[in-house]
Amino acid sequence: MSSSSNSSIAKKARTKAEADFATWLMMAKLGGFDDLPSNAQGFLTNYRTRLETMSEAESTALAVREVYSAYYNEMGGAWARRRNQRPAHQRQRAKSCASRDGLNLSPLHRLRAIRRGQ
Fold first, then answer.
1. Separation between Cα atoms, residue 101 and residue 53, nearest integer Å
2. Of the candidates 93, 91, 37, which has an alpha carbon nearest to the alpha carbon of residue 67?
3. How far apart are CA 42 and CA 115, in angstroms?
4. pTM surpassing 0.70?
5. CA 27 to CA 43: how far, in whole Å?
6. Is residue 98 within 8 Å of residue 104, measured between CB atoms?
7. pLDDT per residue over 40-51, tens digit each?
């Protein structure tokens, strides 16, 4: 798959994720949580759970990222395949070094660090 195709998929997935999450959040606030699809309910439940350990902005950013990742994979994006080409022990080593050096600042890694008590 070409890089421009992946970029196009990424842009569509990001736009859709941001719009859908905002819509789901508004519907939930207006009392329509039970009317949402099960996947939307799951994303919102995770979002609400994270609010206990992080700010609203961080939880929102992470929720949109999760929705984006799901949409990107559904649309046929290729980053997951490329990322997982390295052996598992090399991926784990890269993650631990980046986290240790303070280079990995993604919300998911910050959440994991909080849970580990770092």
1. 23
2. 37
3. 20
4. no
5. 13
6. yes
7. 999 999 999 999
